[in-house]
Amino acid sequence: MKKIIYSAALILSLSLAACSDAENYSPQEIIDQVMQETTEVSSFYGEYVMDIGDGQLSTIKQWEKEGKRRIEVSDESGAKVITVNDGKTLTSYDEQSKSAFVYHLTAEGTEPLMQPSPKEQAHMLLKMVENTHEISVGEEEKVAGRDTYHLIAKAKEENGLMGDLEVWVDKQTWMTLKSVSRSGDMVLTVEYTMFDVDQKIEDSLFALDLPADVTVETEEMISPEQVTVEEAKAALGEFLVMTEQNGITLESVTDMKVEERPEFVLNYLLDGEPAFALSVFVPTESYTEVGSKTGETIEVRGQQGEKIDMNAFRYVQWTENNHQYGIILENPDVTFEEIYEYIEQMEMVQ
């Protein structure tokens, strides 16, 4: 239960932001409105229910104010997890186990535990479904007593990264007040029962005083860091990189600051546009291949590898000379055939 509640507290629900008074939108017009630069809701109180389809319901209370956030997640047994982000620290307190995690945030290290803004979430969602789903408008309904637009996104193909999705968007604030996502046999429903943008939110809500008998673990957030190829080589030893030719150029190298092992991501451009990201690390004994047995077995540079093609997520991985390589295709115009050609031309880092 703790894992589910803790994840829910960090992930939260999807929010959209835009504004307009027009009544009759086509799906594309609604998308265009969401994508426009608009003023987002900076303060609100909400309550919603999360149903992950296994008979277990979580009830969430949510306070937002000027970038600060408090989330209280309870299950049907009454167990509660409280997560507070005051901009400097993120504290997650499990009342049942009397334990808490405190993460000290810095300007460079907040990304892993910070929820994207409603506008950023809107961009991410729409980018994920605009080419893989047919979007239509359903009947307008009231959710949490507020008028909403009903958007329906039907997956064009089966077995994609995202299945069918429905969202109910508040007409005034363009916050998503209800969403239903289906993937295979799994159905996730998130629905607000209360949403109030006028409620006064006290600053004291973002100060969490832990009881004296709580076990507290404190961690400093270590964020990914831009480094040089030479620094990556010093940590990994000799490894393969893409040949910079035919429009392929290396944009950046990122040290992912993985605790168990050195891991680096090399981001490549094709004719100046993001093309793909190459991840390299030396597997440890405890490492389990992500995506193992979920994709297609292929041969890569004479080694057994794996290809995953799930519409919005395209990935190739293999192990060579004790290094694990993974490539995420970011540009939809770059094909697997082209990636295979680039891979065959890879050279040892100089």
Write the topology of this structure:
Blueprint: H1 2-11, H2 27-35, E1 43-51, E2 57-65, E3 68-75, E4 80-85, E5 89-94, E6 99-104, H3 118-129, E7 133-137, E8 141-143, E9 146-155, E10 165-170, E11 176-183, E12 186-196, E13 215-220, E14 225-227, H4 229-236, E15 240-241, E16 248-255, E17 263-270, E18 273-281, E19 296-300, E20 303-310, E21 313-320, E22 323-329, H5 336-344, E23 347-348
Parallel strand pairs: 6-13
Antiparallel strand pairs: 1-2, 1-12, 2-3, 3-4, 4-5, 5-6, 7-9, 8-9, 9-10, 10-11, 11-12, 14-16, 15-23, 16-17, 17-18, 18-22, 19-20, 20-21, 21-22
Structure report:
The chain has 350 residues and is mainly beta. The chain folds into 2 domains: 2-220, Lipoprotein localisation LolA/LolB/LppX (outer membrane lipoprotein receptor (LolB), chain A), CATH 2.50.20.10; 225-348, Phosphorylase Kinase, domain 1. Helix content is 14%, strand content 44%. It contains 5 helices and 23 strands. The strands form 3 sheets. Strands 1, 2, 3, 4, 5, 6, 7, 8, 9, 10, 11, 12 and 13 form a 13-stranded mixed sheet that branches. The protein is globular, with a radius of gyration of 23 Å.
